[in-house]
Every structure is written in structure tokens, then in C-alpha cells.
Amino acid sequence: MGPRSPVIAVVGTGAEFPCGLSPSTDAQHMEVRWFHGNHSGLVHYYRDSKDYLEQQRPEYHGRTELLRENITRGQVALRIHPIRPADEGDYRCLFVSSTYHNEARFHVEVTGSGSTPHIHVQTDDADGLKLTCTSMGWYPEPEVHWEDSLEQHLTPASETKTTDGDGLFEVQTSIMVDKSLSANVSCFIRNPVLSSQKGVCVSLAGSPFATSSLPTCRSTAGLWTFTLLFPPPPCTQLDATPACSDISIIPSGKPCLRHLYQVSHSVCVTLVMHVIVGG
Questions:
Q1: What is the CATH number of the domain that holds 93?
Q2: SS3 174
Q3: Cβ(105)–Cβ(92) under 8 Å?
Q4: How many CB atoms sit inside 10 A of residue 34's CB?
Q5: 239 - beta bridge partners?
Q6: 138 and 101 in one domain?
């Protein structure tokens, strides 16, 4: 007898999958076998009070443990640590003896929420401002969207999703905005299994006098907020700041940081980093 509903396992953590006999029966001297997928997918094999792992699939080496504190009552659990995307799928637990054979089947659904989004800002020679939102470490494929001040979805200029060697998704999405705009723009990345999301909100001030009338980034758990001012005080104040062609905003967790950057020969920007909003 195993889990009746799919088991949610989070990438990078440990997960335990219970399996037992009903009615309760001493299973100390039974064989207990765990399979992922078909019969060739041996995950763990227990017999005569010992683990036999010579035939275990290579990807599970060093990652499994049979918890058998309650085996005299026919209750065991398989622990896998750390969980990987490839661990997702159907599992079977078998109890076998010379006079008995029983099995349970269940499904494992792997998921993981990635890093806090990172905003990259670039200017061009015209009046455009390119905001690029990136994040990594998601599973399964996350949902991505941009919002304006009215929480209306915005169409991205580009969007790519790639996987790394561990099968985790990395997201990169960009949007173009006008430098003279006074509003806020938010990038959200959502885990469809956990129904949780992380995001970043950038408030754009088209002039130094627009900050008082800027829309407020909505209070949402996991949302970081930033303010960009165009233009900042005169560029002569930037003598000690090396010129750069672009800037990156990465949440620092500090209450408030102000920096001046020269992003082109004629454009300067002031960044104001605020504390995280929500949790």
C-alpha cells in the first residue's frame, strides 16, 4: 500500500516515499524492491536485513536509503536525496517472499522554484530602454509574463527557455519601454506545480520630478522593487564612476542603495534599490 495521490518532491531536497503491507505483517525477512519505470529501473533492493545495491541504476548510487524502523509492522519508506528532475515518474514498491507477493504503485512529481529574477537594463541611441529579466533553476518549465502598472499583461520582445545539464530551466525574457515613461513594469516567473511565483518590479521615472507621482509596485510575496530615474543629477557628479554601456540590477537584500551610472555619453541613470516586498 503506497501513496494514493502523486507525491510532490522538491529539487535539491530529500523526499520519502512510504510503502507498507495491509494488513500489518512482519516484513523483516521479505525482499523489498523499488523500481522507477520498468523492471530494469531498480532503485533499491533489500533482502535478509541487508541492502543489495549492486544492480541499482547508476543515477541512484549514493542517493537512496530504506527507512525500516517499522518493518516489523510491514511499513517501510524509500528516501531519495537530493531530488533531481530525472526522478520524476512512476514507481513500484514490491514485497516478496516464498509465499507472498504484493506491490504498490505511485507517481512522483518533481518541482523546484528558481532564483530571484535578475533585471538587466540597456539603453540604445534612440529613446528605447531594454529590460531583460533572467532567472534559473526552475522545474518544470515555468510560466513567464510581464505586467504594467494596471496589472495588464505586456507582450515581450523576446523570450527563451533553456535547460541545463541537470534538466533545470533557465528563463530570459526582454521588453522595450520608452525612456520618457513614468510607470512601473513587472516581470513574473511562476511555478505551475506549486502555484508560487517570484518577480521584480521596476518603477520608471521619466524625469527627476516624476517620482512623487509614480504608481506604486503592488505588494506581492516574492516581489522585488526598484526605481530608475531619467535623467539623474548632472553627469559631472559621475567623475569618479567608470562609464559603462549597460547596468544590471540584482536584489541585494539591503534596505536602500543609491548609485549613479553613466549608461551612454548623454544618458545617466540613478538606481534606487528597495527592500523586498512580501516574503
A1: 2.60.40.10
A2: strand
A3: yes
A4: 23
A5: none
A6: no
Q: What are the grid coordinates assigned to 252, written together?
A: 541585494
SS3 246: strand
Q: Which amino acid makes up residue 158?
A: S
Decide: helix, strand or coil at residue 126: coil
Identify the domain containing residue 180 by its residue range: 118-203
Buried b (16+ CB within 10 A) or exposed e, 162-176: eeeeeebbbbbbbbe
DSSP 8-class letter at 39:
T
- Find how far residue 193's CA is from the centre of its chain: 11
The residue out of 203, 223, 252 marking a domain boundary is 203
Matching residue, cell 541504476: 57
**Phi, psi angle pair for 213, to nearest 5°:** -105, 10
What is the residue whose three cell numbers read 529579466?
133
Taking the alpha carbons of 205, 206, 212, 216 in that order, is the dihedral positive or negative?
negative
pLDDT for residue 270 is more than 80: no
- Write the burial class of residue 81 (CB in 10 Å: 0-12 exposed, 13-18 middle, 19+ buried): middle
The rounded distance, in Å, linking the Cα atoms of 35 and 65 is 14
Q: Which of these three, 70, 89, 111, is where a domain ends?
A: 111
- Tell whether the model's pLDDT for residue 108 goes beyond 90: yes
What confidence tier does 100 reach under pLDDT thresholds 50, 70, 90? confident
At residue 185, what is the residue type? Answer: V
Cell numbers standing for residue 122: 540597456
Total number of domains constituting the chain: 2
Residue 205 has pLDDT above 70, yes or no: no
Number of residues in the chain: 279
Same domain as 63, residue 122: no
Cβ(153)–Cβ(175) below 8 Å: no
Are the beta carbons of 177 and 185 closer than 8 angstroms? yes
